[in-house]
Write a structure and sequence with these properties.
Elements (H helix, E strand, L loop, with lengths): L10 E7 L5 E7 L4 E5 L3 H7 L8 H11 L2
Helix pairs in contact: 1-2
């Protein structure tokens, strides 16, 4: 006898703010696992990932995005 499988897809998310002000984006999958990401300053993250200093953050991330396969 086969058990019914869960149907559909779900990826719920909420934001949480820690006592030190760090913001966390928390994803919960349909199976109940949690994945947590911390917010960082976008321009500094682009620099850390190797972007050349450009006019604005969007251009920096677009240059990285286009290089990534």
């Amino acid at each position: 006898m086969l058990k019914d499988k869960r149907e559909g897809t779900a990826l719920a998310f909420k934001t949480f703010i820690a006592a030190d002000g760090t913001r966390y984006l928390v994803f919960k999958s349909l199976e109940g696992s949690f994945h947590v990401f911390a917010e960082v300053e976008a321009k500094q993250a682009a620099r850390d990932c190797g972007a050349t200093e450009l006019a604005n953050t969007r251009q920096m991330w677009e240059s990285l995005w286009d290089k990534q396969q």
